[in-house]
Amino acid sequence: MTGWWLLVAVKVVIVAAGVMTAAAYLVLLERKLAAWVQDRIGPNRVGIPLTRIRLFGLGQPLADGLKFIFKEEFTPGHVDRWLYWVAPVAILTVSLAAFAVIPFGSVLPSSVGVEGEHPIQLVVAPGIHVGLLFVFAMGSIAVYGVILGGWASNNKYSFLGALRSSAQLIAYELPLGLGILGVVATAGTLDLQRIITTQAETGCWFVFTQPLGFVVLVIAAFAEAARLPFDLPECEQELVGGYHTEYAGMKLLLFLVSEFLHMITGAFLIVILFLGGWHFWGLTGSAEEVGWFRAILRVVVLLAKVFAVILFFQVVRWSWPRFRFDQLMSFCWRVLLPLGMVNLAAVAVFWEVFVSESWLPGGRLGAAIGGWLVLIVSGYLLGRARPVIADNRPAATLMPHDIDWQVP
Amino acid sequence: MKPDDPAIRWIDPPELTLSEQLYLPLFAQGLTTTMRHWKRTWTEGPVTVSYPDEEPTIGNPLNYRGVHRLNRDEQGRVQCVACFLCATACPAHCIDIVAAESPWPDRDKYPESFTIDELRCIFCGMCEEACPVDAIELTSLYNLTGRSREEMIFDKEKLLSVYDKTKDSEPMQSRSGGGAS
To answer: Which of A200, B64, B89, B142 is deepest in the core (most CB within 10 A)?
Structure first.
C-alpha cells in the first residue's frame, strides 16, 4: 500500500510540476511567437542569473515569476477579504485538478509495476471511468473562481467582467459537450485512456470520421480558455482588465496561470479525443503491453501533438480579430449549438449505418465521407443564414416620434 | 440630426461571396498572413534592433530631430545673432537667451548666454525653422540622458560642443541665410 501511495505522489509531483513549468515556458513561447509574427525579436535577454549568458531568453519565466512574487501583496480596503483570497486559489486548484484524469502517456512496461501485477498507467488517477465528466466538472467549477473574483473585488467593472466571463464560459460548455458527445457515443466510454485505445486499435482518429465535432470542439475550447478571438473577459486593448482588475502580485498570477492551464487542458482534450492521443501509425503500436522504447515514444508523441495544438492556439491569437459580445453569444447559440447537434445526429446515423450494423458498405471510410459532407453542407447553410451578422444601426425607417416613444 | 434626415446616406454592408459565407476560407487567409510574417522574421530577421547592443540606423540624419547644437562660423565664433526668433517660435518656451552688444563688427548682437532646457523641449524643430542664420540645428543624437535636471539644461558652451562633436558627421543644412559668414 505504501508503494501505491508513493506512486501516486510521484505522479502528482511530476504532473503538477511539469504542467506549471510548461505553463511558464509556454508564456515565453507565446511572447516569442508574438514577436516573430510582429517582425520583432521578443524576450532574449534573461539567461543564467548573475552571469552574462543569455540562452535566448530562456530565463525569462524565472524572472517573470520572481517579479510576481516580489510584488506587493496589496489587498484593497473595500474588498470581501475572505472571497478575495479564495477566488484565485479555487480557480488554480480546479485547473490543476483536471490534470488528475488526463493521461500523459500510455503505460510503463509491466516490469516496473509496484506489486508486479499491473503495468503503471501514466495517469495520476487511473481507472476513473468518467474521466471526461471529471474534466468537465472541473471546468465548470472554474467559473466559480471567476465570478467570486469579480464579486469579491467590490468593483463594478470587475463584477461586469466576471458576468461577461461567466456568461461566456457557461454558454460554451454546451457546444464543448456536444462536440465530444459524438466521440463518447462511438467510443462507448468516458474513460480517456479507453478513448485513445479505441483510436489506436482501429488506427482511425476521430477527427477523420467526425470533422464537424472536431471543429465545434476546437472553437469551444478556444472560448473556454478565453483565448483570442474569444478573450472578451480581459481584452487587453479595450478593457482595464476583467474580473481580476483589483488583483495584483501573486494572486493575479494565479488567475493568469489557471487560464493558461485551461488552454493546456483544452489542447490535451483535443488531442486525446480527436487526434488519437499517443497513437501514431507505424510508430507506437496499439498493444496493451509495451517495452520501454514504445512507452517513452508514446509519451513523446502525445506531448508533441499537444504542443502542436498549443502552437496553433497561440498563432491564432495573432491572426484573427476579436468577436463582439453579441456576436460571441449568437455564435455560440446560433452556430455552434446547432452544429453540435447536427454532428451528434450525423455521427449516430453514420456509425449505425456504416460501422456497427454495416447496412451500407464502406465501414469507417463511409462514415468519414459522410462526416465531411455534413461538415461542408452545414457550414455552407450556416454561412448562407449568416446568424452572427447583426445590424446594430437604427433603422432607416425609424421616425423621430418612434424614438420619443421608445425612450421613457 | 434625425434618422429620416435626407442628408444621411445609408450604406448597406457589401454582399458576402461564397467563400466568405463559408467562414473557414477567411480563417485560412488570416492564418496565412500571420505565417507569412513569421516566416519573414525567421528568414530576413526582425525589423527591430537590440538597442543597447546595436545602434539603430537613422534614415536621414539631416531630418532627424535630436539634441540641439549651436553652429559656429568659419572663425569659430557662435553663429547666433541673438534675434530671439527661436525663443519666440518655441512652443515649449525652453530657450532662454541673454543678448549683449556684439564684440565683432559684422553684427549688432550676440548671445551672452544661450540656454536650452532639454527636459522641456518637445523636439518639434520650430527653432531650426525660425532661425534666420541657421545657427540652431537639431542633430541626430537621440540617446540624450542625464542624472540630474541641472545636467539637462544645456548652456551655450555645451551646445557649441555638440556642434564640435557632430560637425563632421552632419554638415550644416543650409548656408543660404544672411547674417554672419
So the answer is: A200
How many angstroms separate the CA atoms of A143 and A170, rounded?
Answer: 8
Look at chain A and report how many structural domains it folds into: 1
Taking an 8 Å cut-off on Cβ atoms, the answer to whether A383 and B50 are in contact is no
Decide yes or no: CATH 3.30.1490.270 for domain B68-166.
no
| B residues 10-69 lying closer than 8 A (beta carbon) to A | 10, 13, 16, 20-24, 27, 30-31, 33-35, 37-38, 40-42, 46-48, 50
**Angular region, A344: left φ>0, alpha ψ -120 to 50, beta rest:** alpha
pLDDT tens digits, chain B, 181 residues: what are they?
666 778 888 787 787 788 877 777 888 888 999 999 999 999 998 888 888 888 888 888 778 889 999 999 888 899 999 999 999 999 999 999 999 999 998 889 999 999 999 999 999 999 999 999 889 999 888 888 889 999 999 999 999 999 998 888 877 765 444 433 3
Query: In what helix (H) or strand (E) does residue A305 lie, and over which residues does it extend?
Result: helix A292-317
Residues of B in contact with A33 (CB under 8 A): 38
Could you tell me if residue A251 is inside a domain? yes
Q: Where are the domains of chain B?
A: 68-166
What is the distance between the alpha carbons of residues B174 and B170, in angstroms, rounded to a whole number? 11
Instruction: Tell which of A319, A331, A334 to mutate to test the B interface (max B CBs under 10 Å).
Output: A319
Q: What is the mean pLDDT of chain A?
A: 85
For residue A56, tell me if it sits in a domain: no
A26 within some domain: no
Grid cell, residue A398, equals 425609424
Question: What pTM was computed for the model?
Answer: 0.83
Distance CA A169, CA A223 (A): 7
Report the complex ipTM: 0.79
Domain membership flag for residue A120: yes
A379 touches chain B (CB under 8 A): yes
